[in-house]
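User: Modeling request: complex.
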Amino acid sequence: MSVGDPATHRAIEAVWRIESARIVAGLARMTRDVGLAEELAQEALVAALEKWPESGVPDKPGAWLMAAAKNRALDHYRHRKMAETKHEEIASEAEEGFMPDFDANLEDDIGDDLLRLIFTACHPVLSTEARAALTLKLLCGLATHEIARAFLVPEPTIAQRIVRAKRTLAEARVPFEVPRGDELAARLASVLEVIYLVFNEGYSATAGEDWIRPGLCEDALRLGRILAELAPHEPEVLGLLALMEIQASRLRARTSPSGEPILLMDQDRSRWDQLLVRRGLAALERAESLGGALGPYALQAAIAACHARAHVPAETDWKRIVALYDALAQLMPSPVVELNRAVAVAMAFGPSEGLALVDALTSETALRGYHLLPSVRGDLLEKLGRLDEARGEFERAAALTRNAREIRLLLDRAAALRSGLRVVK
Amino acid sequence: MMVVIPKGYEKAKPGAMPDAKLVAEMSKYNESLQKAGVLLSMEGLHPPSMGARVSFAGGKPKVTDGPFTESKEVIGGFWIIQVKSKAEAIEWAKRCPMPDDEIVEVRQVAEFEDFPEDVQKAASNEPALRAQLEKKAKKR
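Assistant: Request completed. Predicted assembly structure:
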């Protein structure tokens, strides 16, 4: 890797970000082997890093990279053929005869190839973590060290995760295709889960000093936007996109200049990104226009949209939010949804109504260890003037979270109650 | 943001449009931005001959109808794209199907955080505005 020319290096990184998914997808179609496709693409990148600092960035950098990858693929198959000829007896006919068609026009259905690549990288045979790492690597062109940094995991862990994921896909003989019929819904859910996991990892970092890691949000949004182009008739794809656009519109308002988290109701709404709000509302409208009942992502987007439409917290249509949570709870029964519903009920009908619902959730084993339960309970108790109990709940919540900034926020609220000062909202 | 500066647009007649071939190429390019998930929004602008300028010589507004023949480079349109780096924006700009001698300028949209604290404070009329809206909401 040349270090002499940072401008070329940055240009190569930019080209890679734009081209890598298409190159890997095209190679995967030709070789029917996603792992091999990724390695060939990496070799092409290494070649570019060697050559371009001297030759300059070529006019059609994508085509250059693809040609370089194809050359390496040809070498790979020649070597394999030679090795197989040596072991003539054990080489199967089919294997021996397989030579991918490297001249097929790649541009023809690159969209289909990308879609196949997304479905393969997010295949349920892989763990969610493996799917996320592989997706960032194959679809977003992130380097292993970038993925490791994003997830706050040591680089070798991610490298291992990706190697194993590729091996698992090969061993399970996962075909490079878009699932059809009955299988499609479940497989699509698996894709959407991965994209939203990446988004959330960025949006509300689960551990460490930073509350938000916007890089991951951007990657997830980009994936969501790409997917919405590839599958424009899938309401849940549009629903997830709408949800992410609206949530991302608040990124700048979610932290104070010193990095402290600011909760939704306390945010400076003039700092919400109205371009992203509009994009989110438009995506939601498209999802709704496709007909049928809203799925879980579209429902969550519709809830986010209620907040997005309110210029000030007092304008929020909490009754509609309660109704949307009712629908969501039916579709996706979960204590976390119930907790959110309780918050909405408290806002729509008063804190004591909300507290009754929250109290019913305290025995949920699934919520044991979930910091938002005592945090919400504390908030409602505070509103009802039960300050001592509220303080205890904030302290309990602080002990349950690993995010340093969130801990500070919760302890500040507890301390304010102890000193007899209520945090004025 | 990518800003287009078409050649001679400062002198273009009202209603002047690029030719169909260029429009076709441009739509293909726009589609590539959209499919890559980087395009947030875009607009094309009518020529300055259809616009007007409000200048503030001596602090007083003075209106001049277009065209403004003295200007050399005028904006023809823009794309707002979301990318990781300036290098990536440049890479997209290089792919724009522009006719000979025309320009695509890459500019970064300023974020609130880019301003110093005193400017941030000045930019935020938020507390007053918020109080006003809260009041309005409660009346309903």
